[in-house]
């Protein structure tokens, strides 16, 4: 029986409880949410970042009834932030010499009858044609074409609209220069007109719609480790391409945004920049929640920013970001926002200061940022962070510091086993109600199975019950391209034309779309589900388990004990011989354990992929 105290005031559920954390990891931006179809459109990929990269990554040479050479050069670039471009030297005039782009995954995805905006910058020594086709990999099918007469000796932008004549996920974009002489090309772009909410330079519709279906109340961005690992030098000074995410480099015309080799080991175009993030949050009906480094790297690396001048610039950039989001059009940065098309302030309420910046320098740097923000923008809620774990000495230290600093919230991150999530449902019951609130900014149970999703769902009941202290929560990471995976598990998986949600996605959607106003106290009375029933539910007929307060036993159908463990030792494992190859991993947390079939790991099990997790509880009479 379930008793609900309907007379009680209950716990008010935070209005922003469920949100999303979007990071450019797993190609979540280029080749993902960012709708651009051309990979390496600005020829900036560089072997000094990644040995397999060249300026021609994703491009290959095409000669059609003509001959010539192609190179990537920095000679008289498009602008100071866009250093390289393609140079075609035509040696034998014909239909054309140029390049073919292979897009992402299997190629460029096109849908019949949809419109695509084609654009590029070009200049040439003698006037002549540039012909562009969207075609199949073998060139036998043409999906669309556009021709241009390029006469200018100076950089000039050329545009056209292509309507696709067919549907494919494997097209190529071929750009050919005819005539003679030298032709320079840069920022070759093919962009679907049909983006989320029809935004120019916008988001891929299916991925954005799946995000919107979660009904997120906030959008944390741009990371994660992508925010805060690398040097603090601006692009103009850069020696090291892996630079910290610098928001000012990500706004304005896309051809003026420098690319960056990001923490996750690939080139990032910044096509989705801070303006697009704010716009996307608004389109989702979510609060924008940017996270900035406070000059302490984190994510396992520490190259703290101690140079006073650079630190002061960094603090100023943080203040300028708030002005960019919220400032009146008469302010410097408010005016820039207005010029980009959004005179109305975005209404920023939260700012994250630091992502997993668990190094001593954090204690020196954080106050400089927090004090400056507090002084100028007292209404902005400041989020400190607690690092990469759910507990431990650093975790406690970071929390103590956040309390001293009177942070509004503390960003907790943890990726744990499903058993941890089941065992920790009461984690926030005992949190201090008077201190900073909690932002569970990154969490996931390790795996993408239904069982992981159920463990997370169970855990979310604890979060919701405590949403007077847990103000915000977001699963992480949000997106992964199936062919460029840096991190699992993830919520939304996709290739270049399809997307699906993991089981965890549907848990997030269920909770996000069904947020109550109050959680009323309730009590459940009843017998725990017999373990044999669990066995039945998972379809194992040859053995059964018995769970007590602090032990787990696996017995076969005749009652022979195949395994028992009281969790007194740490890494308990059991490998019987002929009887099977069961092993038990101690979940390391109170009375929980994972029982798994080692044969499935070896690939020879009947019960392939099977994992049984037993959480033993001190439940009266439970056996
Ligand atoms: O979500 C993936 C990564 O996990 C994030 O970039 C980082 O903050 C955390 O360690």
Descriptive overview:
It is a single chain. It is built from twelve helices and 34 strands. The radius of gyration is 28 Å and the shape is globular. Helix 4 (308-326) packs across helix 5 (332-339), helix 4 (308-326) runs parallel beside helix 6 and helix 9 (450-465) packs parallel to helix 10. The two termini are 20 Å apart. Helices cover 20% and strands 30% of the residues. The protein is α+β, with helices and mostly antiparallel strands. The chain folds into three domains: 11-29 and 197-523, TIM Barrel; 59-192, Galactose-binding domain-like (Jelly Rolls, Sandwich); 529-615, no CATH class. Bound molecules: alpha-L-arabinofuranose (AHR). Alpha-L-arabinofuranose binds next to loops.
The overall average pLDDT, rounded, is 87
How many independent structural domains? 3
Report how far the terminal alpha carbons are from each other. Answer: 20 Å
Q: What is the gyration radius calculated from CA atoms? A: 28 Å
Q: How would the global form be characterised?
A: globular
